[in-house]
Amino acid sequence: MQSGLFPDDPAETRIEILKATYAALLEHGYADLTIDRIGQHFPKSTSLLYHHYEGKDELLVDFLSYLLEDAEAGLGTESGASADERLLTLFDRIFAEETPESMAFQRAMAEMRAQAATDQEYRRHFTEHDRFFRDRLADVIRDGIEDGTFREVDPEQVATMLHTMLSGAMAEQVTSDLDLSSMRAEAEAYVEARLLAEGR
Amino acid sequence: MQSGLFPDDPAETRIEILKATYAALLEHGYADLTIDRIGQHFPKSTSLLYHHYEGKDELLVDFLSYLLEDAEAGLGTESGASADERLLTLFDRIFAEETPESMAFQRAMAEMRAQAATDQEYRRHFTEHDRFFRDRLADVIRDGIEDGTFREVDPEQVATMLHTMLSGAMAEQVTSDLDLSSMRAEAEAYVEARLLAEGR
Question: Contact B116/A183, CB-based, under 8 Å?
Answer without folding.
Answer: no
